[in-house]
Design brief:
This protein has nine helices and eleven strands. It is α/β, with parallel strands linked by helices and 325 residues long.
Length: 325
Amino acid sequence: MVRPTPIFLAPIFLASILLMAGTALFTQPAQAAAPCDSIWRDPLRGRDIPVRIRLPAGKGKAAAVLWSPGLGGNSNGGEAWASAWAAAGMAVIQLQHPGSDSAVYAGAATPEDRARHVMAGASAAQLVQRTTDVTFIADELERGPRATACDTARIDTDRLGLAGHSMGAWTVQAIAGQRLGPGFVFADRRFRAFIAFSPNARPGSEAQFADIGRPFLSVTGTMDGAPLSADPARRASALADRIGVFKALPADGRKALLVFGGADHMMFAGNPGRARSDAAAARVHAASAAVTTAWWQYWLLNEKAAAEPVLKKPPLAPGDDWERK
């Protein structure tokens, strides 16, 4: 497999019900194998990529979703989503991207140091590394079983999905086919469907998404990118950037947008700890898990009869929005 050419860039009444649903979704089934951690080395780049592998119950072949965390995230990122998707029958591989993982926050003695580290971690060069990490993992899965405690031979490489949060969503956008420079793309056709939590399309970049023809779900919130304390114009601008990806995608019946009223950026990182202590986060987590699981069921598992009722009428509250095109 030849790797893609790198491009440089740049309400309350539902809460208790959804909290109970979320608890069930985020709890790994007793019969499922425990996650196993490993480090996969890319010899071409001399790069070690930590991964956490989850396999569903059983011994048969399983569709797989790769997860790319946000800036500062490690291989334990997206635990809420990974648990829900594995419980629904999918393998999940959570990636850690050296250079844009938790190391970006280490050794920052001053706010200025922290800002420099964050800028370096969120650079175009690091996005190139992230996308190459994803294609490398897909390459390795195609080559055959790896020496890990989890049986990677069960993974069906003809049914791959990719999801990510924040900078991980940039990675998803690139692999899905966003054009980040003249004539250059990261697109990898091995991935059948995508989910981007907190995606981003800067004004003027809309044409970059015209070639994304595969299923793509965007998940965001009205406070995703701007705090409640920000002025209304700033909040509106931040939300416009988030939903801009969906607006720019071609309308082919395979695109969807999920917007949660009042949801902030870190609700979409998939940290189940917050959902246990914050009723608003619990509601968002439970509904997100339900909808994203149905998305994978529809596009990766071919369980359309089970998925379509959720995708037609998601468990939303006043202030939320669901669009398909």
